[in-house]
Amino acid sequence: MSGKGETTKVVILARGLGTRMRKPDESAHLPATQSAVADIGLKAMIPMATQTGRPFLDYLLSSLADAGLTDACIVIGPEHGAVRERYERDEVPTRIKITFAIQERALGTANAVLSAEDFAGNESFAVLNSDNFYPRESLEALHEMAQPAIIGFDRDVLVKRGNVPPERIARFGALDIDSEGYLRRILVSPTDEMLRSGKPIFSSMNCFLFTKEIFRACREVPLSARREYELPQAVHLAIEREEMRFRVVRVSEPVLDMSSRGDIARVAEFLENVEVQL
């Protein structure tokens, strides 16, 4: 870790099966290039710029470099050679160092983080999804911190200013935050008290800052009802054992979420004028 206590390492979770993305959607009229990648569920590599073929992950990597996160480990499956070829051969980044970790089977996000343990070493590191485009404020917060943290995104802002429809917002849960600003739990849904208060409710978009203590929790977290080793449950385990405390960084900026085919056109429109420098 640098003398300033800044974090420069980031783990990008790109191993998921892309089940929602692979699901047919007749209302999403996609060019053949986008449709072909959507068919295999590799969301990070879906072309956003039709002329250049620049994939979504290029935009995320560029924004990470802008924020000072300059050492990235992309967690992929053994079948995802296209991602490795992109950044080791076709367009090698100069502003952000890229390494890869292989998650042999899609066993959940906690297991994916565990696959990057050698990359992280003893340093603090950010973790985020490969199918979300996060606001710069959130990425800079992760860079500037060294203690464990979670970025909480205002649910109303995600809907009103981003591309998250109201019916999807429940998927991201709600953060139960104590009086000192630390995370108690990531709830499946807001409590009645939260809803009655009229105060902003903050959700998780898998945007974390971890220290090495998270790896024990990732190793020991039990299988969820979905038969996966899930990162939120590993976070809860670390909190319950009093091994980690997570500062909640509240952000009132939108996140672009690319979960399904119906999201692709809108996300591409948002990114149309975003400059990419790898």
Give the topology.
Elements: E1 9-13, H1 19-22, H2 32-40, H3 56-67, E2 71-76, H4 81-90, E3 97-102, H5 109-114, H6 117-120, E4 125-129, E5 132-133, H7 136-144, E6 149-154, H8 155-160, E7 174-177, E8 183-187, H9 192-197, E9 202-210, H10 214-220, H11 231-240, E10 247-251, E11 256-257, H12 261-271
Parallel strand pairs: 1-2, 1-4, 2-3, 6-10
Antiparallel strand pairs: 4-9, 5-11, 6-9, 7-8
Structural features, described:
The protein has helices at residues 19-22, 32-40, 56-67, 81-90, 109-114, 117-120, 136-144, 155-160, 192-197, 214-220, 231-240, 261-271, and strands at 9-13, 71-76, 97-102, 125-129, 132-133, 149-154, 174-177, 183-187, 202-210, 247-251, 256-257. The protein is α/β, with parallel strands linked by helices and 278 residues long. The protein has a single domain (9-271), classed as Spore Coat Polysaccharide Biosynthesis Protein SpsA, Chain A (Alpha-Beta Complex), CATH 3.90.550.10. It has a 7-stranded mixed β-sheet with strand order 3-2-1-4-9-6-10. Helix 3 packs across helix 7 and helix 10 crosses helix 11. The two termini are 23 Å apart.
